[in-house]
Every structure is written in structure tokens, then in C-alpha cells.
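Pasting two entries for a bug report.
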Amino acid sequence: MKIAITGATGQLGRLVIQSLLRRGVPAADLIAAVRTPAKAADLAALGVQVRQADYTRPDTLAAALQGVDRLLLISSSEVGQRTAQHRAAIDAAKAAGVKLVAYTSLLRADTSPLGLAAEHVATEALLRESGLPTVLLRNGWYTENYLASAPVALQHGAVLGSAKDGRIAAATRADYAEAAAVAISGEGQAGRTYELAGDASWTLADFAAELARQSGKPVVYKDLPEADYAAVLVQAGLPQGFADLLADSDVGASRGGLFDDSRTLSRLIGRPTTPLADAVKAALAA
């Protein structure tokens, strides 16, 4: 059984491949479908097949998916271009006779208040229309989305955001990667939709308090209006569009868009999700 993973050189994709290998899937049965094969030399060294797959070049997608039985379609990182890119991959998968597609969507995408949800909803519709057997992995927020700002928060003594006291049931990339590995390599997955999130939820004030506790430095949470938070992100060097997207996501969190208490993720992977304290400890050690 050949399993292809798009975006295999990305942060999530590499973790999925590692999880599949741990689960006993032979490296020779894994296909890393990547835009730049040279960046996948480490995967090739493990015995994983590396094939070029560029969303903007349909011919590469067709070649990359030849002989593939199952495809893990990791959502593109290019917000605003995702729907067209995913359509190209889905068309190639259908033409290649792929028997199962797993797609990394967004937590409760169909009812989410986050602007990010629109392209995921569109992709889910494309998958339905394709007739391909599909499993939807609706991922919640990555804990790493916040850990990335920890150094700045420690420097200035503040975590900034627009989430108010919205509860965020985040999990680590490794948690979500393991779920993807389980779904794409397991049996009876077609037709399933998994709403995936961390076992425990926390607010950004809780996150700031955990940073303070473990670092020994004063850190507080400062809630800002959406436009002000976006402006701060732009001043920090982010493009306006991406800053607006992050600020909108925080507002969505304040409306419950990143909360889930179903524990579907931990049941799927057979262990508790990574606690915030553990993730913070690892980030500070790094």
C-alpha cells in the first residue's frame, strides 16, 4: 500500500512520516510529495520515495500520485491560494485512482467563526464532489502557534492578542501528526470526520501565566482590539494580510471557535494530548 504525503518537508508533514515509520509502515511504501525535492534529502536517506509535486504544475501532481493508494493532503500554507491548489491535487488524485484521501481541515470548519475556515470549507466541498473516499481531519489550533511568540513575550513581559477569555483547546503538531498517521494508515476511515483538539483548554491569560511560572519572569496577557493587534503584528514584520488573519483568528477564539472538549484526538491516537505545561517546557528548553 503506497501512501503519499503532500507538504512532506513542512513541519507537520515530517512529523507524520516519522509517526508512520514508528507505526511500522515501510519507508519504501511512503511517498514524500514535495515542491522542492532537494529539501527532502533527509527523507530520501530514510528510504522514503521523494517525488516532485507542485500545485501550480498539474503534470507534476499527476506523476507524483501514480500508483498511490492513499493520499494525505496536508492543507497548503499559502492562504488565499489554497482552494485552487487543493483542487489541482484532488483532480490528480481522482485521475490516479487514489482509494482514500485524508485532508487536514479546520476544527468545525462548517460552522467556524474564523475567516480561515472558508478555504477549508471549499476544499471539503471539492472532495465531496470528486467522489473520492475521504476522511476529514479537522485540526484545532497548534500550541506552537503561540509558543512561537514566547521569546518576544518574555522579552516584553506580555502576551498580546484579541482572544479575550476565549478558551483554546490546542494540541501540538506531534499530536495532530500522529492522528493523521493513524487515519491514513488505518482501516475503515472513509467517510469519517474527526473534530480534533487538545484534551485541556486554556485562555491566553493562562498561557501567559504558564510562561511566567516556568521562566520566573513576569508575563501578563494584554487583550487588544482586533485592528490594534493586527497593527502590532505588522509592526513586528508580518505582512498585512497575514496579520489580519491572525487577529481574526484570535477574535474567532473569543467566540468559541478554538474550543472543543470531545477528546476525539486523544481517543484516536490512544494517549492524552500534550499538556500546555509540557509544550512550554520544551519550548523554553529549546
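Entry 2 (this is the one that rendered wrong in the viewer):
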Amino acid sequence: MELQRKSGVALWRQIQDWLEFRIREGELKPGSRLPTEQELAVQFAVNRHTVRRALSLLADKELIRTEQGSGSFVREDPISYALGTRTRFHENLLRQERKPRGELVSSSVIPATSLVARALMIETGDPVIMLETLGEADGVRICLASAHFPQARFPGLDERYRQTGSVTLSLRHYGVTDYRRKRTQISSRLPTAREARLLGQARNRPVLITESVNVDTRDWPIEFCESRFSSERVQFVIEN
């Protein structure tokens, strides 16, 4: 495509229209990577600010998404993430024929805040094991979770998780053969700089927050978790 420089239509608008047409016609497939700002600037003989404005409008129209350090991609349909009494990350994704993966970012033993203590029915300041994990679907990061477990009941859970890569399998070592979601609170906000970096998303795109409590078969709290989901990549489905 050659830009019409005396048409009265802004150059950034012509670039945006050209990319939008290719996306809507299916020439650029969902998930495919767009040329970089520099490559588009060279292709159209314009400065990068002109290209950046065109890409920004496509993002505002939710046709593309930007991953920090990776570039811009044609948006896929968001993952429908089920929230119900039995919420399991891997099961949720496998049901949609997506490939799940979890990555341990960090683990530590910290004193329980008042929020965590109330959720786990322990005393403020009691030690809890905190696992921070990144969840992926088909190689794309979709959530960052901070899960808290009472250390008195689950000593060494962090090491168990390193060995198994699964909370469910790790809990079985302590006699927790099954558990269910008792409560989920949903909110949204803009991500911190660290959250945006770990999720690979722009800081001006919101994250969906879930604060959840899981209980064992005796209805005793075993986990409090705060998860931050990329709102561009995930939509929640509430199951009864």
C-alpha cells in the first residue's frame, strides 16, 4: 500500500485503516504478530510517532494487544475462565483445548496480614507460605497469582510445589484429597509496573482481580489467593 500524502486524510489514519482492513478480512490472523513500529515506519516512510498513533487506535478498538518487549499482536477471542465451586486453572484451560502452564515466580514465608488471617481463620502475624505463580495458556501469560497457605498445617508446601508444579498434587501430601471454592470477590484496577512486566501487557490496560478462599471437605480454609488476570485475554464465566 502507498500512502496518499495529499488526500486530506491523515497518514496515521491511512495506516490504521489499512491494518484494520487486513485484520477484519482475516489476512492477519488472530494471535499473529504485527510488524514492529520501526518496520512499519520504514515501509510507509513515516516517523514512528505516526505509526504509534495508528497502533494506539487499533488497541483502543480492541483489535490488537501489546505485550511489553514482544510487540503488537492481533487479538484472539478472550479465554472464558470459569469461576465456580470447583475452580482449577489447568482444568479450565484443558476443557477449551488450550495448553496450560504454571511457572513459580517466587516463594516465601511471610506474616499473615489481617486480610489473609481473616480468610484463613488464623491470627494476624502467623506465618503463611506464599507462592507467586504465572499462568499461561498456549504460551501466553494470562494471570499472576499470589496464593497463601497456613504454614502450621502445610510445612514445606513450597518445596512440594517445586517438585509437582501443582497445588492440587502438593495438597494431597497433607491429606487434602479435595477442596472447593467457598468465596470469590472480583474487582479491577490498573496493574503495577511489576505486574504489567510479568504479565507482558501495557500498564494502561486493566487487570481483573479475584480474591478467593478455598476450603477442604470439612469446610476449613486452606488457601487465600489473589489473582491478577489480563482483561484483554480473559473473561470470567460464573458457574453455579
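Dev reply: Rendering is fixed now. As a check, the viewer should reflect this: The mean pLDDT is 93.
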